[in-house]
Write a structure and sequence with these properties.
Structural class: alpha/beta
Shape: globular
Strand content: 15-25%
Helix content: 40-55%
Distance between the termini: 39 Å
Number of strands: 10
Order of helices and strands: HHHEEHEHHEHEEEHEHEEHH
């Protein structure tokens, strides 16, 4: 049973879509199909039920998911143990981040890391908070960067790298555009565009009494463009590009920039080096895992 087949199976089992799994794994769709067929042939069991409209796990497929997770986690632990003995970061590292952070914060981190550790091959992926946390849990991603508080999960560790002020973005000429600062009471009855449920900024908006959610938009960048087009107002981090819209500070409001990783991976040299680089760039003074402090002294 080949490990790459198990890795592919796990992604297909999560996405239940061969096209999305192929894009995530950077394979041709035909390669994903061939790997799943090879795994099914080796096990002598059908793992997925395929119809023209949907893909579902069979009973055998559902049972295999847990075993695939355990096998791949043991492989990662073995690799981490060997990497720690060698000590010098190399190999692959997958970083994930929200769209805004990918554009605004991650390039500096990427550059600093690559300058110091050029033998590590980095893959950068975008996703929603839920997608990023799930990818880290399932060992499909090493570290992710998000806004807001991380999930309460004993298998994960996290650190706050800083805070980002929040602003209300409004179309030019909107009554709020002339204010120097906006307070929650100023938003009574104001029409807002919102990101989908589950997004941290949607949760913030829902906690404010007064705004009226008139439409949902899939990303912060798209939301900012819709505001500039006059379709409503929005709440976004100050670093979101808002060309054509007016950004007004939201009094006392900010969101954390958070880094999340698997606790058991802290001793992997390439992960420890990334954590150390992120801490150093942020100027974060909070307690750091011993392995991160050690990596910082060699960086």
């Amino acid at each position: 049973m080949e490990l790459r087949h198990l890795r592919t199976f796990r992604v297909v089992a999560r996405t239940l879509n061969f096209t999305r799994a192929a894009a995530e794994l950077h394979y041709a769709q035909s390669s994903v199909t061939e790997q799943i067929q090879a795994l099914e042939a080796e096990l002598g069991s059908k793992l997925f039920d395929r119809t023209t409209r949907r893909l579902t796990l069979t009973g055998a497929g559902e049972r295999l998911v847990g075993y695939a997770d355990q096998v791949l986690e043991l492989v990662e632990e073995a690799r981490a143990a060997v990497d720690e003995e060698r000590g010098d970061p190399e190999g692959d590292l997958t970083i994930g981040a929200l769209e805004t952070l990918c554009a605004q914060r991650i390039p500096a981190l990427f550059g600093a890391y690559r300058t110091r550790w050029p033998r590590v091959r980095i893959t950068l992926r975008e996703g929603s908070r839920g997608e990023l946390y799930q990818a880290v849990r399932q060992s499909e991603m090493d570290v992710c960067f998000t806004f807001g508080a991380p999930p309460a999960d004993p298998a994960l560790a996290s650190a706050t790298l800083g805070t980002e002020p929040l602003v209300v973005i409004v179309p030019p000429g909107h009554p709020l555009a002339s204010k120097e600062e906006i307070r929650p009471g100023d938003l009574d009855g104001v029409g807002f565009l919102a990101t989908p449920n589950g997004c941290g900024f949607r949760e913030m908006l829902d906690r404010i009494d007064g705004p009226v959610v008139e439409a949902e938009v899939g990303s912060l960048a798209a939301l900012a463009r819709c505001v500039a087009a006059g379709l409503g107002c929005g709440i976004v981090p100050a670093l979101v590009a808002c060309e054509g819209a007016v950004a007004v500070p939201l009094a006392g409001a900010a969101t954390d920039v958070t880094m999340t990783w698997r606790r058991r991976d802290e001793r992997k040299p390439n992960v420890a080096a990334l954590l150390a680089t992120a801490y150093a760039l942020s100027g974060n003074d909070s307690p750091k895992p011993a392995v991160v402090r050690r990596a910082m002294t060699t960086a």
